[in-house]
Write a structure and sequence with these properties.
Two copies of one chain form a homodimer.
Chain A: E1 2-3, E2 6-7, E3 11-14, E4 17-24, E5 35-38, H1 41-49, H2 56-73, H3 79-91, H4 98-113, H5 118-157, E6 163-167, H6 183-191, E7 196-201, H7 208-220, E8 224-227, H8 232-237, E9 243-246, E10 250-252, E11 257-260, H9 263-272, E12 277-280, E13 286-287, H10 293-296, H11 305-308, E14 309-313, E15 318-322, E16 335-338, E17 345-348, E18 351-353, H12 357-363
Parallel strand pairs in A: 6-7, 6-9, 7-8, 9-12, 10-13, 12-17
Antiparallel strand pairs in A: 1-2, 3-4, 4-5, 10-11, 11-16, 14-15, 17-18
Helix pairs in contact in A: 1-2, 2-3, 2-4, 2-5, 3-4, 4-5, 5-6
Chain lengths: 370, 370
């Protein structure tokens, strides 16, 4: 998508140096637009763990490129063991992100296909990393094409009034390689001239909504307001939300959705007010092994500092300030699970389905044959 | 309650100067403990509007003292009109707070009782302001005595494991004159040695939980963790919450509860997970005219700056930082309404009742006779 009028993806090989990966260091947004050079798998692991890059699809693409960078630096006499270590290192950075596991496994298969030929392995890992990124962008584009039908249908009933969409966290193009998932239908509708307005949950503690989604939408010219995470229920009670779309970090094959902490609360409010609640996701986010999301999906606990302090722009620089009493501890669960019963449907790259095993099976029958 | 080992209320007449009211300027907590002198009704209106003082009971007490300060300064030849203007000025500061209206009306009746005798009026307004404050503290103490039974019952089932209580915003003693409402049962249980732990919703956008409730509990030695407002649903799904207690800024006589924005979302999560959700309130908070909270209670919209920026301690001073893109607008609804159907019960100074007209009528029959 566009940044300052120029087209960007969120991750790419440096134009004149294909041994360097470039990313947008998202920790500085929306205040500063910083491109970071990543030259080693260790740097990529830090970038994933410390959330220079974040979001389901982008973490997968970053892991794919990370495996390629690992191969470039791996000692030739200890190549296989070194690549195993790199894969373990990458996998440990964000335990809840299913795309991380998926991309690393995909690269390990590529590695195996190259046998003992290290140069072939490097070439194939690079090719596969680029394919993972391209597929991610293409899947998001298709999610937009499918999801826009929901917005069009609502617009048809609103006589020119804007369709009000609420979203949580950033499942925008910054969370993927391009387009995003929750935002893909929004961008597609906007580009078709459908009047729209987006309520952006700020999404504490890391404020991905206030920082990233608001910035993305602003750059693309989509009308929006930032709201505290507490506000959505009130808006829904008063008819100010027509549709909720969120992303998903991991989805069970039965339709339970692990997404940014607080998603579950919005789903409850949508149900209580008869508002459609859709989840947009590429199938790479589906965990084909897990049936019961609430009890089976591990939930990452992050550093309490993310709750106790916050980073913002003081007019001259980014500055961190303390929000709590100095001796009050905090806990920081990063995700929650929204049970399928609260989800109106899943918007995938193959179409929209019911959030249920039957619904998912209809779109992905090949995953259920084994 | 205690601050740095010394007993304080939240508002009082200055010891050696009864023409000055003193308050804790809560905007600086938890980082600085600042006592502010209030000498005029104009200063009191600013203190209420800009939330130097906040919370249902404390706003009422502040309005009571504000009317007294107004009388001290009112021109003798235009006393009645001047007092009417003062009452209008105070009423306009926080439209959702029912205690404000209630305390101002109470002082207007006192004023009437004094006829044309200005000195008598001043004396009676002072006496009444002190009575409003004393009653507020006494009602909160009784709420604690009634509510502690809920905590004791849960503790009896937990074999010495701590009772986990979640609370939203600050319905602590800082929101009243002493004890608080939601916190009164917690302090009472703590003082009886019941093992307890409190999940403190940070309560964006103004972070009254992270700033005030955490500070209060810390000063009193109650074990607690601060959490983002998004976290409560996840904790409830995983058995980590035994009881929710919140306060109320305005309660309909049918049991609908207008409280800090986001309360409704926690009530939905409590219902979805079969967790008791209680609301603690003095009866001064009950609006005897309103039947349908969602549609009849006006919801204050505050300045979007409260969402777009945040204030915290940078290690040396309080500093405000920007959280959103510079051009992204925000909206700031300050309260939401939790329908009575989601409320397990109301804890009042007269006891615990069902959140329904029948329940409220049982405790306050005299309010239903007219």
């Amino acid at each position: 998508m566009k940044v300052q009028g120029q087209h960007y993806r969120t991750i790419w090989l440096k134009a004149d140096d294909p041994t360097t990966v470039q990313i947008i260091d998202q920790r500085h947004l929306p205040h500063l637009f910083v491109i970071e050079d990543i030259r080693t798998v260790q740097e990529m692991a830090v970038a994933i763990r410390d959330m220079h890059v974040r979001g389901a699809g982008l973490i997968g693409a970053a892991a794919g490129f990370g495996m390629y960078l690992a191969a470039l630096a791996a000692p030739r006499d200890d190549f296989a063991a070194s690549m195993q270590a790199a894969s373990a290192h990458l996998r440990a950075t964000r335990p809840t992100a299913v795309n991380l596991e998926w991309a690393v496994s995909r690269q390990l298969q590529v590695l195996q296909s190259a046998g003992d030929d290290v140069e072939l392995a490097i070439a194939r890992l690079r090719q596969e990393a680029e394919a993972i990124a391209d597929e991610d962008a293409e899947f998001c584009r298709r999610i937009g094409e499918h999801g826009v039908s929901l917005i069009e249908a609502i617009a048809g009933r609103k006589n020119g009034e804007p369709v009000n969409i609420l979203t949580h966290c950033n499942a925008g193009w910054l969370a993927f390689v391009d387009y995003g998932t929750a935002t893909a239908p929004i961008y597609a509708a906007h580009d078709r001239g459908i009047p729209m307005h987006v309520w952006v949950d700020e999404t504490r503690p890391r404020n991905q909504g206030a920082r990233l989604t608001a910035w993305e939408l602003g750059q693309h010219g989509v009308s929006h307001h930032v709201i505290a995470d507490n506000v959505g229920g009130h808006l829904m009670q008063h008819g100010m939300v027509d549709l909720v779309i969120t992303g998903s970090d991991r989805t069970t094959y039965t339709g339970d959705v692990a997404n940014k902490i607080g998603t579950y609360l919005k789903a409850l409010a949508a149900r209580d007010n008869d508002i459609p609640f859709y989840v947009a996701l590429p199938s790479s986010t589906i965990d084909w092994q897990k049936r019961d999301g609430v009890h089976e999906i591990p939930i990452e606990q992050r550093d309490a500092t993310e709750v106790r302090t916050i980073r913002g722009w003081d007019g001259e620089q980014l500055r961190t300030v303390l929000l709590t009493p100095p001796h009050s501890p905090a806990v920081n669960y990063a995700f929650d699970v929204t049970p399928a019963r609260l989800v109106s449907g899943l918007i995938t790259e193959r179409g929209i389905c019911e959030a249920s095993e039957a619904g998912v099976r209809r779109l992905y029958p090949e995953k259920f044959t084994s």
